[in-house]
Amino acid sequence: PTSLHGKVAFIQGGSRGIGAAIAQRLARDGAAVALTYSQSAQAAEALVSAIEAAGGRAVAIKADSANAEAIQGAISQTVETFGRLDILVNNAGVLAIAPIEEFNLDDLDRTLAINVRSVVVASQAAARHLGDGGRIINIGSTNAERMPFGGGAVYAMSKSALVGLTKGLARDLGPRGITVNNVQPGPVDTEMNPDSGEFADALKQLMALPRYGKAEEIAAFVSFLASAEAGYITGASHLIDGGFSA
Ligand code: NDP
């Protein structure tokens, strides 16, 4: 699998979980990968070492997605390091859950900054470098389509914003041959949503396939969207959720 040979990918939030699996997969498929993190320096450096040990090229950059200048700087650094940019993956995300009566407004601002504003900022910065065949891939959530519990209103709102953003960006960038897509996972076993967590059994009961997804399953789909074969797919949101919203 070398379909991304010669490509350069920037993964916003790639130190752990789904983002780390995407970094590993895109590197395995031939791309040079820049991944950002805010806290998990050790995990990010270990991932870079693993990619390099497997013969790939990677760099980890500390850049808080709540900080626009940090994102812009990380994208510039990626282009300086690898000479170009072909694929932007916006994966960084946070989950704050509380009943609306108790929802903390700092959590509202942080959710919007990381889950939504960072996607606009990174897309704008990346658009200056992407060429024909370029890709923007957002990681949304099945919760944009179905939020079956209380407490998740703000998270669902943040992921719903990506549905519209993806459509509009596809219109802005389509004339330049750049596609924009939104991947909407269901429950995936990560530190954000562990398969052993208190919600796991309740979530499985809502699904057509009563199991958690693996980060690698999301990464495989992202790799396909990044490939030349997916060049006619744009402006779309794609559920990959075990039938959570079926
Ligand atoms: P994790 O919490 O396991 O990992 C989150 C990743 O994002 C880490 O690499 C983290 O790095 C990075 N990140 C978080 N905040 C920031 C920030 N401010 N700046 C830079 N990087 C940041 O989450 P998942 O892997 O589970 O989730 C990844 C994405 O998938 C999110 O957008 C999430 O909403 C979405 N998703 C997850 C689902 C699930 O069930 N797991 C289901 C549907 C969607 P660091 O530790 O360095 O901050």
From TrEMBL:
Q: Which UniProt keywords apply?
A: Oxidoreductase
Pfam families found in the cross-reference section? adh_short_C2
Q: What Gene3D superfamilies has UniProt attached to this entry?
A: NAD(P)-binding Rossmann-like Domain
- Domain (Ketoreductase): give its ranges: 7-186
Superkingdom of origin organism: Bacteria
**Record flagged with keyword Oxidoreductase:** yes
- Which family does the entry's similarity section mention? Belongs to the short-chain dehydrogenases/reductases (SDR) family.
Task: Please identify the protein, giving its name as recorded.
Answer: 3-oxoacyl-ACP reductase FabG
Q: Which organism is it from?
A: Zestomonas insulae
